[in-house]
């Protein structure tokens, strides 16, 4: 069904949406660079008032709890509420939910105070947020369960779009499920691959407001995975080379090449 | 007039000045690496007492508000005041001034409490700080006005050197204006290009205390832009390759090559 | 004696230990990427409760004071104490000890409240922590003294393993000293080379609990230095290229190649 996603990448590059990221210290630079490579316009904030104002002019907001502390939680909540008022999409990345009670509690607080458009996490994180059984190691998911069912259950329970990333990415709304089949194992050898995808999804949503959000999220995940495959075609010796080939691919991969190489399947009804 | 700037790069490499950076989370690593590649010695600080002590032994201090919050504002003010006492140059990068009232107010507070040697920003930021008309999108400048006049007005109003970066860099004191004509559009596709330039300017100032500061700032901006052109000669496929070719160029570009390729013009009297 | 270290790298790659890093903002991304390239599993934390919980499931904890402020000091102490309870190794990197009284005091507080397994720093930092004479410039060591004697004295005084990095790395316990002779000057042109080594040492310790800790620390330092030499074999034009070749080398350098190229000598009794 990838043909239906055609045009969504070019929308990002034409509209260059302003994306506000309240994100973790590990990936903050990579996030800015990923969005710039893609053609979007990143902005970051560390102060509640600053974030509230910026959310009013942004096209979308990404919230990520990877190195959360109290002051950032306040900033994050302000950003989310302000985005809700402005009617722009809010994507939540619950990094390490389930790994500690501090993180799990923070996610619950965010979900209760901010209307989230899309939740993006690995299997373990999504399972933790929705009390499903799964395996975690630190902030990495090591579960081997049925990821499609996991995503479907989560989307239904939370009544939002859920993107579970891993070997395959599963994108599920309460009523429909799509699966992207591209990518490379090398993505697990660089930090922040999932985190940056959260921001890329936000940019796609901001630039494609007229389209079906589940298809927009799928377009973002599919484009991202195909870009990773393009990076592997340059034969990196390791994750150092790969990271920068990947960033180049976010910049130079065309809509046509992506659509040609991307594989997206329907995951059945929920 | 580029011949007059000759020798200023070698001074940095010989003296290896210690530069303290109170900067934003997005660019903090890139700043350290940019200064190391250039041959300077970076140090960072996140605590007021720590920053106050370090400013006493540094050759220059860079202040950047890109991810400002309250604790960092305190650190930044301490660093600036301590640098003033030590008589070393202080460069201010007002990232996103004009984008939010929080940032604009912070810049005003800094300008009122710390004697700034050089203000470096894009057109929108400099316009916001000096109440001139311009266009902003998030923290990016999208104005199309007369950047030379903008810089001249700002330098006169603030009575300091102002560096407005963009397609051309305009460096203006209250009495003289210089323009660098090098660079590449690819610099807009990596984060932190302007922020790191602020630290490079600080390093040039620290190592060239006997020279005319407007010429020293121009040397820094010109060298930086020529290094970016050198990086483009290696034909990067995108911003990933470019960023590291650029860092290599900061390391390997010689004084002679820079002077040969650099174009600097006088911008007329203020 | 390098043959005695054989197998320690493969242990890291097989066990993929979870390493918690409470580290500075400059190197936090590079630390995550270095550990992932090596084959370990990084996790970061910025909140005391979060850190306390994570330390209970981690294989080792790295503490680094490079951009310390009050909230992080609290997190760092919680992480250390929790690691002590869990009986896992704790490595301390006293970045800039001696450069400011704030840093020196923080290190003393940490040493008094947390049982540290390994202290890793440059000569100036180790000298500052142990009140020995040495030279500092900002957070960089510029002393020219007898680094072997410095390490021996520090290990004896603190009753722990001390790793002094520089042109040679000297690893000393209270009763034995080892020296690694590999490496490249280019490591001084990228930020965080020493900081990431602290995390690599932590990963080696976590994966080799049955082995003699001084030999494990030496294996980590030796592997890291040989990886840097491998990166130089790809002829980087500067520190930009080098950093990513080095990360690739952490990923692809085999146990056999490392052992073949590594040079480790005994440093005499203490």
From TrEMBL, chains A, B, C:
Pathway: Cofactor biosynthesis; thiamine diphosphate biosynthesis; 4-methyl-5-(2-phosphoethyl)-thiazole from 5-(2-hydroxyethyl)-4-methylthiazole: step 1/1. GO terms for biological process: thiamine biosynthetic process; thiamine diphosphate biosynthetic process. Its EC number is 2.7.1.50. The gene is thiM. It comes from the Bacteria. Keywords: ATP-binding, Kinase, Magnesium, Metal-binding, Nucleotide-binding, Thiamine biosynthesis, Transferase. Belongs to the Thz kinase family. ATP binds at residues 120, 165. Substrate binds at residues 44, 192. GO terms for molecular function: ATP binding; hydroxyethylthiazole kinase activity; magnesium ion binding. It holds the Pfam family HK. It comes from Jeotgalibacillus soli. SUPFAM superfamilies: Ribokinase-like (SSF53613). It catalyses: 5-(2-hydroxyethyl)-4-methylthiazole + ATP = 4-methyl-5-(2-phosphooxyethyl)-thiazole + ADP + H(+). This is Hydroxyethylthiazole kinase. Transmembrane segments: none annotated. Its cofactor is Mg(2+). Catalyzes the phosphorylation of the hydroxyl group of 4-methyl-5-beta-hydroxyethylthiazole (THZ).
